[in-house]
Amino acid sequence: MTDASLPEPRHARSLRDVDARTNRRNRAEARFRAYGIAAVSIGLVFLVVLLGAILINGVGAFQQTFVNVPVYLDPAKLDKNGERNIEDIKKVSTFGYNPLVENALLETVQASGADTELDSAAEMKKLLSASAAAQIRDTVIANPELIGQTVEFRLLAASRVDGYLKGRVKREDVTRDKNIDVAHLDLTDKLHDAGVITKGFNLAFITGADASESRPEQAGLGVSMLGSFFMMLVVLGLSLPIGVAASIYLEEFAPQNRFTDLIEVNISNLAAVPSIVFGILGLAAFIQFAHLPQSAPLVGGLTLTLMTLPTIVISTRASLKSVPPSIRDAALGVGASKMQAVFHHVLPMAMPGILTGTIIGLAQALGETAPLLLIGMVGYIATNAPDGLASGFLDPNSAMPAQIFEWAKRADPAYYERAWGGIIILLVFLMTMNIIAIILRRRFERRW
Amino acid sequence: MPATWIVLLVLALAVTGYVLGRSRALKSAGGDSRNLHSLPRYYGAHVLLMTLVPALGALALWVILQPLIVDNAISAGLPDSAIPEASTRGLVMSDVRRVADGLDLAVSEGTISAEDAASLRPEFNNIRDRLGEVGVALGSDVSAPVLKAAQEYRRASSTASLLMTITVLAIALLGFGYALSRTNGEFRARNVVESGIKALLVAAASIAILTTLGIVLSLIFNTLEFFKLYPAWDFFFGTTWSPSFGGGSELGILPLLWGTFYISLIALAVAVPIGLFSAVYLSEYAPRRIRSIAKPLLEVLAGIPTIVYGLFALLTVGPLLLKVFGDGGLDWMQAGTAVMTAGLVMGIMLIPFVSSLSDDIINAVPQAMRDGSYGLGATKSETVRQVILPAALPGIVGAILLAASRAIGETMIVVLGAGAAARLSMNPFDAMTTVTAKIVSQLTGDADFASPEALVAFALGMTLFVITLGLNVFALYIVRKYREQYE
What we know:
Chain B: Its main location: membrane. Chain B: The chain crosses the membrane at residues 45-65, 160-180, 200-221, 260-285, 297-320, 332-354, 387-408, 454-479. The complex is a heterodimer of chains A (448) and B (487). Chain A has 448 residues and is mainly alpha-helical. Chain A folds into two domains: 59-201, no CATH class; 222-444, MetI-like (MetI-like fold). Chain A is 64% helix and 5% strand. Chain A has helices at 20-58, 75-78, 86-91, 94-112, 121-124, 132-142, 159-166, 182-194, 203-207, 222-253, 258-270, 275-289, 297-321, 325-333, 338-367, 370-374, 389-394, 400-409, 413-444, and strands at 63-72, 150-156, 197-201. The longest helix of chain A is centred in the N-terminal third of the chain and has 39 residues, at 20-58. Chain A is flat. Chain B has two domains: 3-187, no CATH class; 241-486, MetI-like fold (Orthogonal Bundle), CATH 1.10.3720. Helices cover 75% and strands 1% of the residues of chain B. Chain B is built from 17 helices and two strands. In chain B, helix 1 (3-28) packs antiparallel against helix 2 and helix 2 packs parallel to helix 7 (189-229). The radius of gyration of chain B is 31 Å and the shape is flat. The two termini of chain B are 61 Å apart.
């Protein structure tokens, strides 16, 4: 070997001046990092936009426009015999109340000093919801002694008037609208200034029933909330015991054999089956085969139970697994049977984890819509609140997400506002459940 | 006697059994529980279980089977002449059931007396009007055989109910008596109770198998029924989807599969890059604080119900896209509901799904591989790209497949956001529809599954089930195999 064969020594450079290649690598590094930040930010921006859209579009549903009208409950019209017999009073249909409403409205408009192009009271009545007469009739039937007096009513305004005051209905939109004219909007403005038309908190939206297609101002989520509630009772009552029992068997007792493997494979696959397939199962098994009533919360609950079970089993098994074996060994060591060790020691210690999993499973079930569409929990108007347990489980009802879907399908944009508002309520429920689950986990979770 | 009462009676008997069994065992041991084989409460629980479980099991079985048996018996008794043209036995039977239910209701409301209901004759009484009074609407007048069948139906049902009451109570009493007679100090109550409880646990675990079985059976039977009415070849290879309940429908699945596939593709095109980069950033770059805030926030997206995304697609994203790509803008889009709308929104929904699965997988790559790469002088991004991602690739592919299966099975977003027209088109701004959306539209509110237009939903469901199951099994296989590699 000679010195001549040595490569020429590389030109020594300071480490401080960075060569082009390093520069490129550093730039690539920065770029890559920026992509990551961008991806996370895009995700978060989506979240913000989604929540923002819900809030902006939905808050309106919690406000409602009312028309304050003193109505003279004319005995000559409402109770012709003058005996205050409740049967007689019930005979007067809502048509009988219409003249009262019209007169009252006319007088109110005149008293407020608002001049209007609308000449007849029948025209002015378009400011009111079609439910106004029924609202008065219900009050009168509940309190027959009011007949003969002048009572101040807070009547629902028509949805167009409501939309106008909330900015949803624009003046230029109403020219082709057969429900309302610009003159009505002028009068609305004047009455609003005079304090006859006011906006207030819309309690009926939270507690009320769904209304027909033409009366969005009257629609509420209350009845379908009850439907969801009864469904959740079924889901909780079935999926918690069955899920926990199944997990205890699989985690603590099951021998390693084909049967156990079969169950495990089934559970992990069921967790990933699309929810609509569970709807098909519910339709075929509970309605087609067992002839349970359609649209009943019981059927919805059963279907959702099958859907929720895998979730609960998976989380319960995880929390059973996290209880250290020393607990079991100690129990067995002092003479407990295997069953006693599990039920007296392991299960209570795993309980917080099980409850957390159950709440999250319930929250999932509460928001699920697709299976409910198949078992008929949409497509009709849930007007009657169930009276009692049996009717709560068996009478046709809707559920919160199904009701929201129903509203989203209706043509009137006023229903879109209701749908967004319904989503706010649904999300409040889900958020509460998840927060309870998180608190439970934080408070009771033990690290071994 | 209604089932609720039977359940309450059996429960009461069981509770009595608990008390009696416990005290009987104690008495046989002379009041000293140390002389017993098991703790006294096990003797009580033994009687309780023996009373409750067989009786309630029998009740459940009976309640499920009774309508089937009664139905079959009555249906077989219906003369062929009672079935009008263009109708089927099933439709007539549903009439029969409705009349029978109506009569029950009328009797319970007192508008028809019980004897009348059993002996009514259509020639003299207008059944339809009288049932209408109690709120049972019938489509047509009740024919004599239908009324007769309905009355027989009621008679058979009430006999069966009586039989059920007797049988269930007898079983409960038998169990009660047998358990109580076995109760004495020598009896190994704990072992018996524990094996009983274990049997219940096994039964609970078997529900998973029953559910799968139920899904498969209900899909297969109705699908076979469908293929009897409509050729399978035309279903799988037909390129037109135009159901019409009047008949003459064309029910080709290809346009629906194409719509499903196209929407899922767009969804994955949105979710995979964003989800993957988020996962890489959060697991490799982000400081602990940012990770602890951003990760749960991203996961909120996964907890939002799909109906919310559906509404978001229909009312926010659709109109927004229409403004840009629609009439006033580029003019590619006719309406707010389109493949793009549904795909974008579904992509948002899937971001946390992809990111948290990939996060887990990236975290499972051993630290030694990173350290080795850094030791050779690689930058972080080079390590990620050339070491971590290749090592995690199988797992990430599995995660993407799972996300794809979610996208294919997603319903609400496409029902609200994708439109209703089934077409084979390449334009992502066209309205298209998917398998799930068509299942919903073919089945909503339908109770009689006699026409191919309704039954096709089961064939669609079967296809969907097979595709998603295949994807899941494959994905889980890949993920599991990958996990073993580093354990």
